Amino acid sequence: MNFSNKVWQLTQKIPKGKITTYNIVAKKLNSKAYRAVGQALKKNPNAPEVPCHRVVASDGSIYGYKGIKNNKEKINLLKKEGIKIKGKKIINFKEHLYKF
DNA sequence: CGCTTGACACCGT
DNA sequence: AACGGTGCCAAGC
Question: Which residues 14-73 of A interface with strand B at a CB distance below 7 A?
Fold first, then answer.
């Protein structure tokens, strides 16, 4: 079981309409490798199974996801799940926050 | 085996 | 409040 593998497993656990942060995921893995979490998610071999769009930065902003590409469709999908996004930041992201 | 990179977080300015 | 610099950890080369 690699670090990345755990990350994906946890990410899969995120229910629809909920989100979490890299920091939290790393802590759940008993580690401070929140950056490595991002690395794992970007690899994401299980694209459909792992909702990486539900993992955001600690301040509730989309770090890199939309930044890499102008993929508004994914952001729109998040909105459809009940998450409101203003620019790169999630509105009331703490309320949707899933702490495992 | 060691240096560089990156979807972050934290602190100072 | 916004921006920039620094530290962190795992993976890749």
Answer: 21-23, 34-39, 41-42, 44, 52-53, 57-59, 63-65, 67-68
